[in-house]
């Protein structure tokens, strides 16, 4: 007879799962576990089955052994410590008290003492151990208050009479499952014919974690998880098991670093790569599997695009690669603006986004209505642009005026919503120490510190590595901090695109949970007086508001030049043979994107283009999007966005309009003392604002020119009006002082009383220009 020792049993546990493991332990008994494994203090059992009772841990220093689920579901204990304190955040003293409390209660199932779990149903006094409750088919809800229901009061799913007569297939194990109202059978809330074994669902939830656990039929996540939690399925807050495997995706993180041109000029070899020099290796923008030193291909800048010989041959066969299109981006930018704007973008030229100056010129009625267009204007233009051609300048200006008015109304609505959310902010203050030379890391450290709470007031202390003694804790520093932080986010690797951005796929950022932190920072910034964002693409905003499954991306959302060129080659194929040839050439790319489909007619290209767009713009970044959405839920911002999408799009997708004299005049309320002529002071103030607006238009910057943004910055510490507005409201006071004073703590401009307008103007410009210059230095 073979006697198994504890090591044998441990090794066998990796071979038998679920029912096989139970069968094995019944056949061999528990005598070996009894010797090696101490019993759980709460349930008294020695079983070590993480799928049923949670992870079992022994703490020798405390002489303590517990099952995770036994601890989590006990009725008289709360997680009062941090995650790294005690046992899973439960303090040792609290655990001892709970054990003593449970020792007085008898289990209604096994009749033994130590029943730490009670049914939450009113007037029900049943108590039981966790393993006994599982055996008796009780329901344990691993959410909110971690409620437990006995076998009589447990929640049940409603089945129709017709459903209960049929049998179906479990979509996880593919075995038959009876459609009966049983504890062991669960029905999907989002799919009519999706049925599961409870045991299969629990195994899947433990493996997938909260980010990947969803309906196996329709991929619904929110509704499905909510119902499964209600029915007692434990969904751990962790990443999926396949994501936690060390170095599982290491090969994908390696970039190609080799010079493949016929004659390499680098003396240190083809594998030598020195960033920010002429020996930096540039990869092919189409395939990424070939490279060249900048000097070896006569490229002056890394910004220039480059294709390998193989990719050029593909373009040549498709007929879209002419000598005119082989110009580099740098060269094309030197050509005449009107001619270049109306050309189809070449494979080397990144597509201009809708927010770029070129795009604005393209849509300008003055340009579109000219009769002497260049030959390239005969190219087919999108229908939206053709419509613009037929509009008169008067009609276009009128529409633009109405659009600006509508945006102002939406921003006023957003301001009221954000002010409502700001009521959550309390008087407790959290100070963030921000290094001006490393905004992102210092902000991340501050947001992750233990005492940080989004509901606390925020105070910013600026420091510098060069001069740590020089600090800035004024109220305007908070505006400056959020402006710098949002600017960094816009240009970070978390987003991709030119002027309008979509989320990118950065595996390292995903691993470090940076997408969540970015969403959280944006939400906190909006509530605490940060600036408008204005760089979100419509597709990204709609994914956040309506859900990615309800969004149809466009070609403009593709930031990768190579992918965009592939889509164009498919989209503009004018015959079935050319379409099939293009699909054949792009076979590997389409297979990797899971977009391969049989092409039997020319119209199939539309579905193929749609599949590629959905994969590249949405499916590829679904994990960053989910993490980013969770961060945006901070302080209820995402919920309000979903309730008022049109209003919030004005600050997420549109840049704030340029300041005008009228805007500043409306923003600042004039206060005067009794001995001051209010009319004369107000006249000088409004006259000065108009002068600054006119001067800024003609002088195009320069250190000597004061702008409206400078005036706002001087008085409030912010060069733009935050979506939430200013608190307190900005004011102007006319006082008997020599020079203007900007009181940023009160958002107040204290202006001197002068006899003439020229004196007023000179004092304003002298003070504002020198104050801001000193701050910049």
From TrEMBL:
Principal localisation: nucleus
Subcellular location: Nucleus
Stored SUPFAM superfamilies: FYVE/PHD zinc finger, Hect, E3 ligase catalytic domain
Keyword annotations: Metal-binding, Nucleus, Transferase, Ubl conjugation pathway, Zinc, Zinc-finger
Record-linked InterPro entries: EPHD, Hect_E3_ubiquitin_ligase, PHD-type_Zinc_Finger, PHD_PHF7/G2E3-like, PHF7/G2E3_ePHD, Znf_FYVE_PHD, Znf_PHD, Znf_RING/FYVE/PHD
Domain PHD-type: 37-154
Pathway given in the UniProt record: Protein modification; protein ubiquitination
GO function term, MF aspect, one: ubiquitin-protein transferase activity
Pfam families: PHD_G2E3, zf-HC5HC2H
Gene Ontology CC, one term: nucleus
PROSITE patterns, A to Z: EPHD (PS51805)
Residue spans crossing the bilayer: none
PANTHER family the UniProt entry points to: G2_M PHASE-SPECIFIC E3 UBIQUITIN-PROTEIN LIGASE, PHD FINGER PROTEIN
The protein's name in its UniProt record: G2/M-phase specific E3 ubiquitin protein ligase
């Amino acid at each position: 007879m073979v006697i198994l020792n504890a090591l044998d049993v441990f090794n066998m546990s990796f071979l038998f799962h679920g029912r096989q493991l139970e069968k094995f332990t019944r056949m061999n008994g528990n005598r070996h576990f009894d010797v090696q494994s101490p019993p759980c203090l709460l349930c008294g059992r020695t079983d070590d089955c993480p799928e049923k009772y949670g992870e079992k841990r022994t703490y020798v220093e405390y002489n303590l052994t517990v099952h995770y689920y036994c601890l989590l579901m006990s009725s008289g204990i709360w997680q009062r410590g941090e995650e790294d304190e005690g046992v899973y955040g439960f303090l040792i003293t609290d655990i001892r008290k709970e054990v003593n409390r449970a020792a007085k209660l008898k289990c209604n199932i096994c009749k033994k003492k130590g029943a730490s779990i009670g049914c939450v149903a009113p007037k029900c006094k049943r108590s039981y151990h966790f393993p006994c409750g599982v055996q008796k088919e009780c329901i344990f809800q691993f959410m909110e208050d971690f409620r437990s229901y006995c076998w009589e009061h447990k929640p049940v799913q409603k089945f129709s009479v017709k459903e209960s007569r049929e049998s179906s297939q479990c979509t996880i194990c593919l075995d038959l499952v009876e459609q009966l109202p049983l504890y062991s059978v669960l029905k999907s809330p989002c799919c009519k014919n999706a049925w599961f074994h409870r045991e299969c669902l629990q195994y899947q939830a433990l493996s997938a974690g909260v980010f990947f656990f969803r309906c196996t039929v329709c991929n619904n996540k929110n509704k499905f998880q909510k119902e499964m939690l209600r029915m007692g399925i434990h969904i751990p807050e962790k990443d999926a098991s396949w994501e936690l495997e060390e170095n599982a995706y290491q090969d994908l993180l390696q970039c190609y670093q080799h010079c493949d041109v016929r004659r390499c000029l680098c003396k240190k070899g083809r594998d030598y790569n020195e960033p920010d020099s002429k020996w930096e290796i540039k990869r092919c923008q189409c395939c990424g599997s070939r490279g060249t030193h900048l000097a070896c291909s006569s490229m002056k800048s890394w910004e220039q695009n480059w294709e390998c010989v193989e990719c050029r041959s593909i373009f040549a066969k498709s007929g879209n690669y002419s000598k005119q299109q082989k110009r580099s981006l740098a060269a094309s930018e030197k050509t005449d603006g009107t001619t270049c704007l109306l050309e189809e973008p070449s494979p080397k030229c990144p597509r201009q986004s809708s927010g770029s100056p070129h795009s604005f010129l393209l849509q300008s009625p003055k340009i579109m209505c000219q009769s002497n267009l260049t030959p390239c204007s005969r190219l087919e233009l999108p229908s939206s642009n053709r419509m613009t051609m037929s509009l008169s300048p008067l009609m276009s200006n009128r529409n633009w005026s109405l659009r600006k008015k509508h945006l102002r109304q939406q921003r006023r609505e957003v301001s009221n919503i954000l002010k409502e959310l700001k009521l959550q902010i309390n008087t407790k203050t959290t100070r963030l120490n921000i290094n001006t030379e490393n905004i992102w890391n210092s902000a991340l450290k501050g947001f992750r510190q233990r005492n940080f709470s989004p509901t606390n007031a925020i105070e910013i202390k600026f420091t510098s590595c060069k001069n740590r003694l020089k600090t800035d804790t004024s109220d305007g520093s908070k505006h400056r901090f959020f402006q710098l932080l949002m600017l960094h986010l816009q240009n970070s690797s978390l987003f991709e695109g030119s002027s309008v951005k979509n989320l990118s796929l950065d595996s390292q950022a995903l691993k470090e949970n940076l997408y969540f932190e970015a969403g959280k920072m944006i939400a906190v910034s909006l509530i605490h007086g940060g600036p408008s964002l204005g760089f979100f693409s419509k597709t990204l905003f709609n994914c956040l508001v309506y859900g990615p499954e309800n969004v149809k991306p466009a070609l403009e959302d593709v930031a990768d030049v190579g992918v965009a060129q592939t889509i164009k080659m498919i989209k503009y194929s004018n015959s079935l043979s050319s379409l099939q040839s293009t699909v054949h050439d792009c076979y590997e790319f389409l297979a990797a994107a899971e977009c391969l489909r049989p092409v039997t007619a020319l119209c199939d290209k539309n579905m193929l283009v749609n599949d590629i767009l959905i994969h590249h713009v949405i499916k590829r970044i679904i994990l960053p999007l989910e993490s980013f959405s969770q961060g945006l839920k901070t302080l209820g911002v995402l919920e309000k966005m979903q309730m008022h999408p049109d209003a919030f799009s004005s600050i997420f997708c549109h840049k704030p309009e340029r300041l005008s004299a009228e805007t500043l005049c409306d923003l600042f309320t004039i206060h005067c003392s009794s001995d001051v002529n209010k009319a004369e002071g107000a006249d000088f103030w409004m006259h000065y604002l108009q002068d600054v607006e006119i001067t800024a238009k003609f002088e195009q910057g320069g250190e000597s020119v004061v702008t409206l943004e400078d005036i706002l910055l001087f008085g409030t510490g912010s060069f733009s009006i935050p979506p939430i507005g200013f608190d307190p409201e900005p004011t102007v006071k006319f006082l008997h002082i020599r020079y203007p004073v900007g009181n940023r703590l009160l958002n107040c401009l204290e202006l001197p009383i002068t006899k003439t307008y020229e004196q007023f103007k000179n004092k304003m410009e002298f003070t504002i220009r020198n104050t801001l210059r000193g701050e910049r230095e």
